[in-house]
């Protein structure tokens, strides 16, 4: 049986994580300063860490939708404090 695109990604990049059929509680879209990118921030049901990705345009809100997400854990240090986010590589409606 042929492997899906998602399975190939996870096999190739061991640090990738996959969460399926999770509900989006919040979806915020805002323009990045000095850039033509739109930053999307998702909060998922039962998870206290934001999921972040960038696109060139606004999209229909995903609030309330169920999604499948492939992501990396990312830790950023700001003013001496660590902030954990999830960097989304692939997102699809379930």
What does this protein look like?
The two termini are 22 Å apart. Strand 1 and strand 2 form a beta hairpin. The protein is 9% helix and 56% strand. The protein is mainly β. The chain has a five-stranded mixed barrel.
Average pLDDT reading: 89
* Approximate strand percentage: over 45%
Spatial strand sequence of the major β-sheet: 1-2-3-5-4
Q: List the total number of helices.
A: 1
User: Span from first to last CA?
Assistant: 22 Å
Outline: globular
Structural class: mainly beta
Summary keywords:
single chain; mainly beta; 94 residues
SSE layout and pairings?
Layout: H1 5-12, E1 17-31, E2 38-44, E3 51-55, E4 66-78, E5 81-93
Parallel strand pairs: 3-5
Antiparallel strand pairs: 1-2, 1-4, 2-3, 4-5
Q: How would you summarize what this structure contains?
A:
This protein is mainly beta. Helix content is 9%, strand content 56%.
């Amino acid at each position: 049986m042929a492997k899906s695109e998602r399975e190939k990604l996870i096999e190739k990049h061991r640090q990738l994580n996959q969460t399926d059929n999770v509900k989006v509680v919040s979806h915020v879209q805002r323009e990045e300063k000095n850039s033509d990118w739109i930053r999307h921030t998702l909060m998922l049901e039962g998870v206290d860490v934001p999921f972040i990705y960038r696109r060139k345009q606004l999209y229909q809100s995903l609030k309330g939708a169920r999604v499948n997400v492939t992501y990396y854990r990312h830790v950023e240090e700001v003013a001496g404090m660590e902030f954990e986010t999830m960097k989304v590589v692939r997102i699809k409606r379930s």
